[in-house]
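Example record

The entry below shows one chain as it appears in the dataset: sequence first, then structure tokens.
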Amino acid sequence: MTTTTPPSDTLLRPAAERFHGRLDWLESRHTFSFGHHYDPAWMGYGPLRVINEDTIAPGRGFGMHPHSDMEIITVMVDGELTHRDSMDHSAVLMVGEVQRMSAGTGVVHSETNDTSHPCRLLQIWIEPSSRGIEPAYEQKSFTVGEGWTLLLDPEQAEGAMAIHRPVRLWRAQPSEGVCLELPVAAGRQAWLQLIDGSVELSGPDGPQPLSAGDGLGFVAGGSGELTATAAGTDLLLFELA
């Protein structure tokens, strides 16, 4: 079974301080250590190990490569991504869709942009509660609006996809000025990741502003809320354990 040490303090990751990788076909920004980008101070937040924002050029992508013992979530932001794997899945991931792959005992897959336009996505890795589970694949389209839409839940509440960890993930796209209460249970670790736009998050020391690409880890109190401060705001909220 995987064990993690819960973070005790608020952890701000400004967008400009993320690790930045650039190839002729890929631009990637890593919230946490990934590949040759390594910093022992940025190994993740609780079971959350990877948040990569990738923009992939047309006709290019990641060839077949292996994974094991990890919950891998892909959230499409722009364009399309073609997925193929050793479980005989072949699917196109569209804007508004989310993919969840439990790598478990081992899976090999590829991710390619087979269109004539760039695509943009967030790939997220979360440690499972136990190792050696049977690999699994799930893909689903979600209609995301002003309020919270539950994407991942171990009990698949509200039509969410499954995950092998007591973790929940929401997405919201509030209009400027819209205020949202945080659904994270008191005492639980949380991570807020801004995809686009900006928000202000309430806190004991006053509002915390966050802009596109920023991330914030914190322990949820009994109540909390955020307000969208720009048009086009798009964000993810994790409840972690």
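Notes for this example: The chain is about 0% helix and 50% strand. Residues 200 and 209 are 4 Å apart (CA to CA).
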